[in-house]
Amino acid sequence: MRLGLAGAGRIGAMHAEILRGLDEVDELVIGDTNPQRAREVAAKLGVTQIDDIDSLLTAGLDGLVIAAATDAHPMLILRAVEAGIPVFCEKPVAGSVGETVRVLSRVAECGVPVHVGFQRRFDPGYAAARAAVISGELGWVHTLRATTLDPAPPPAAYIPTSGGLFRDCSVHDFDIVRWVSGQEVAEVYAVGTNRGEDFIRAAGDVDTLGAVLTMADNTIALVSATRYNAAGYDVRLEIMGSRRSIAVGLDERMPLRSAEAGVGWPSGPAYATFIERFQPAYVAELRAFVDSVRGAPTQACTVADALEAGYVAEACELSRREHRPVPLAEVRQ
């Protein structure tokens, strides 16, 4: 199998290393708007580098992995599917809901599969939680609590182009809440605050947020996130049912510590980054994409799924700004 990779930054370089290690991938071709960066990654892995995206898209690819800058995602997706090339694209699909809708429409017309990079779907804990909900072993679910706590903010230059904490970070929680619960979000109420770096406030963003999501079946989902959790990278999901309650992320490397005397758990070193926490999931996600290129079914996030998570993020941002509940119907296009 001959795969292309568009983008050789931090995520692109990680994907390149994973793809190079998959037995099904016979050849990997890397392109980037910064040819030198692509050359360095290609040389390290002993794969092919192409200087421009046009040449990459016409290189006889069986599939394309997109890890380029967000503003390039729509163009790359559409050019690939119009050429009949299956796509794996890191989130987001596009920089706005409107553009995501346009991409979804064209992808549907072309009938070419597009997988969006929400890697939590490929984490064993989240998959087990979804199975527990579907099987009914928890009873009926009344509450979900989803948390994403980053150790430190990204560079100042990243914040103005990130889309904001709801769209950049909590969108992962919105997707996984939908996927695990099997329910759509009906209404949101969200808040956000700033107590850290001024550059986040200056960009109109927040460094800490909370949101209450009311699901279609009246399950309540509570979502929280922050850029400031120096204890480590902390991602968890709790699912409370009428019979049983379970949680994802309660392992030896969870950064949270007990205030109770004599409790030594968890005792392991905390996760430092999302890449460290979800490395196996990233591998499983790309392996699933490779398998899907060969015709196998997959549990990947589709463009339609990504749009739904995007709608929740849009509604939360509107709720935060206007200090009111926002029904999802208000932001749908």
TrEMBL record:
It comes from the Bacteria. InterPro entries: Gfo/Idh/MocA-like_OxRdtase_N, GFO_IDH_MocA-like_dom, NAD(P)-bd_dom_sf. Belongs to the Gfo/Idh/MocA family. This is Myo-inositol 2-dehydrogenase / D-chiro-inositol 1-dehydrogenase. Keywords: Oxidoreductase. GO terms for molecular function: nucleotide binding; oxidoreductase activity. Pfam families: GFO_IDH_MocA (PF01408), GFO_IDH_MocA_C3 (PF22725). It comes from Amycolatopsis marina.
